[in-house]
Amino acid sequence: MAAAEVADTQLMLGVGLIEKDTNGEVLWVWCYPSTTATLRNLLLRKCCLTDENKLLHPFVFGQYRRTWFYITTIEVPDSSILKKVTHFSIVLTAKDFNPEKYAAFTRILCRMYLKHGSPVKMMESYIAVLTKGICQSEENGSFLSKDFDARKAYLAGSIKDIVSQFGMETVILHTALMLKKRIVVYHPKIEAVQEFTRTLPALVWHRQDWTILHSYVHLNADELEALQMCTEAMAMGKLHKEMGQLIVQSAEDPEKSESHVIQDIALKTREIFTNLAPFSEVSADGEKRVLNLEALKQKRFPPATENFLYHLAAAEQMLKI
Fold first, then answer.
1. What would you report as the CA-atom Rg of the chain, rounded to the nearest whole angstrom?
2. 139 pLDDT exceeds 60?
3. Is 215 helix (H, G, I), strand (E, B) or coil?
4. Chain centroid to CA 291: how far?
5. Close Cβ partners of 109 (under 8 Å, ≥ 6 residues apart)
6. How far apart are CA 282 and CA 321, in angstroms?
């Protein structure tokens, strides 16, 4: 097996099964390998089977303490051998962000469980993907890990849709992400939240860091513990106006694809770092560049620009300790 394939198969952490029986009880039925009580309780909460409103969410995903979870839920048809089960959810946990990959795999596992009514076949397929990156079945479909490139997952959202909603105010989102601030997104439909939030990290494409994304959070003390609230206001200036105009013009251009818009934003972002470069110097240990605050102040930028560049340096760990 190629090194890249080995790395890919080592991304999965576990598989689990949640059932809702004919009495309305929701139970964690099975998992491989074992999991912690904390994670199990979280996944039961994320699974829509425990929702009081009884809305069925076919697929949801999120992150908890650097573990990604992917949950596919289906209603059991009358023809199934699962006579005492009305609904069930297949849960996959993994180290990587790739909703399309794990949605495809959980759908296959769902079909297997509907047919056989036992987790054994699911475990066999899980181990096959874990060790070989592939599972094949004429009846339930085939799955190949390497068909799902991580960069495609990063590009699956729509920057253009975000700009069409927020216009020039999109620059507020861009600034918050540049400064590594928290952005809270609320919508009554979880699918809308997930579609919107998964796109946000693309605004700072130079980092390619989707670990900042928490696309499905309940107002639960355990889940909120790791989420630090930020209270500092972000003053806007000429720099932000130029960035906002660039984002809007690029997104509204019908000739430009989503990837072209992301590239335009990334190039403009690089210009911002170019503005910061003259005010940096090599640190005392010679390992990295740090901000020369005095040099920045001597430039006499407008207060909003100076404040932004200072906090950007802080976000990039360029302040002297």
1. 23
2. yes
3. coil
4. 31
5. 15, 72, 90, 122, 125, 126
6. 13
Structure tokens at 247: 């984002």
SS3 category, 289: strand
**Predicted confidence (pLDDT) per residue in 74-114, tens digit:** 999 988 899 999 999 999 999 999 999 999 999 999 999 99
For the chain, the distance separating the N- and C-terminal CA atoms, rounded to the nearest angstrom, is 45
Angle between helices 303-315 and 258-276 (to 10 degrees): 100
Q: Which candidate, 225, 228, 223, places its Cα nearest to that of 42? A: 223
Contact 43, 166 (CB under 8 A): no
What is the biggest distance separating any 2 CA atoms in the chain, rounded to whole angstroms? Answer: 76
Give the dihedral sign, CA 198/201/202/203: positive
> Helical H runs in 142-237?
150-154, 159-166, 170-178, 190-197, 221-224
Please give the Cα distance from 163 to 135 (Å, whole number). 40
Give me the helix-helix angle, 238-252 and 170-178, nearest 10°.
120
Is residue 32 classed as helix, strand or coil in its secondary structure? strand
pTM above 0.85, yes or no: yes
The 10s digit of each residue's pLDDT in 263-307 is 999 999 999 888 888 888 887 777 788 888 888 898 888 888 888
Task: Provide the residue type at 266 as one letter.
Answer: A
Long-range contacts (CB closer than 8 Å, 24 or more residues apart) made by 299-302: 302/237, 302/238
- 185 exposed, middle or buried (CB, 10 Å; 0-12, 13-18, 19+)? middle
Tokens at 125, concatenated:
């397929």
For residues 155 and 262, the answer to whether their CB atoms sit within 8 Å is yes
The residue with tokens 């303490």 is 65
